[in-house]
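Re: weekly structure request thread

Next one in the queue (226 aa):
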Amino acid sequence: MAIQREVPFVTLGDASEILGTPQPTLRGWADMLENHGVHFVKRNERKERLFYDTDIEIFKFIKDQKEVHGRKTTGEDLARMIYDMANETGAFELRKPDGEFPLPIPAPQLTYVDMDRLMQQDAFREWFVALNQEMNKETLEKIDSLEKQVVLAKQEQIQKIETLEQQLAHSKNEQAVKIDKIIEHQEKRDRETMAHLKQSLALRQYMALPAWKRMFKSPPEMDAQE
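Done, posted below.
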């Protein structure tokens, strides 16, 4: 929740008192976020930093993480975590140097070592669980949609075959031609059905992977449906 004040911003000294953090430490955190291209604190004409509510919230989060995890949480870890939380859940409003709020250029991709270290942190683990649940929901919806398409395709195939068989009964002279059409149509549908089933299997195999592995692997692409 934003901190209500009579003025829209405070100076470094006031921010230090609000957060209970020494000015040099607060200045170092601001430099760290700027060096990683994640968040930039506004400055006045004298180049002094001006801290708004959005800035206070970000630095309070950093302080909380430092108090809980100490040196186990590096500046790079915090920068990546803040960027990801803002990007995925809107937890923070990040500012670019020009004062606008679009998200900055993404930080480097996390390595397995980074993930192992970050997963030891409660805040990151909670965010990761929420993100993983959302990813699972989307993937399961894709599987459900794909399997429904397989069922519909089979139903359409049966209906069309039955219709063609009825037509064959009324025209023996065209029987050979229509049988070829039935076979051709059935083979085409069989190929499409197998493709759908393979996609469904690929998605299920993806869902069976550990959650941390899915962070480094995109879900199988879905073929466009006709």
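The beta strands are 9-10, 42-43, 49-52. The longest strand covers residues 49-52.
Next request, please.
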